[in-house]
Amino acid sequence: MPPKHHIGPVNDVTGPSPKIRNITPANSDMADMIRKLRVGGGAAATLTVWDETGTSVLFEGVNAGDEFIGYFSRVMATGTTATNIVGWA
């Protein structure tokens, strides 16, 4: 049986992602715009991101398994205590 294919734009936030990245928090832009983040480690941690407009957003009380959907250009080292972060571009 052939594999099922997604119908719709791949670059849509809800569509499949062509790239999955391990994210190392840094105070600079990532190579790819990330549209979904998943935190693998942390309990009541913090996650500081920049959105596509350059606005800094702080998520508090982040736990392992939490996911964030949007368009993110950075996961800041400053203010981020969450670990094992994975991103879909």
Number of strands: 6
Which class best fits the helix and strand makeup? Answer: mainly beta
Q: Profile the largest sheet.
A: 6 strands, antiparallel
Globally, the shape reads globular
Q: Determine Rg (CA atoms, Å).
A: 14 Å
- Quote the average pLDDT: 84
Helical percent range?
A: under 10%
**Continuous helix count:** 0
End-to-end gap: 29 Å
Strand content: over 45%
- List the uncertain runs: 1-8
| Largest sheet: spatial strand order | 1-6-2-5-3-4
**SSE run:** EEEEEE
Describe this protein's structure.
By secondary structure, the protein is mainly β. It has a domain at 34-88. 0% of the residues lie in helices and 46% in strands. The chain has strands spanning 20-23, 34-41, 45-51, 56-62, 67-75, 83-88. The chain has a 6-stranded antiparallel beta sheet, with no helix packed on it. β3 (45-51) and β4 form a beta hairpin. It is globular and about 30 Å long.
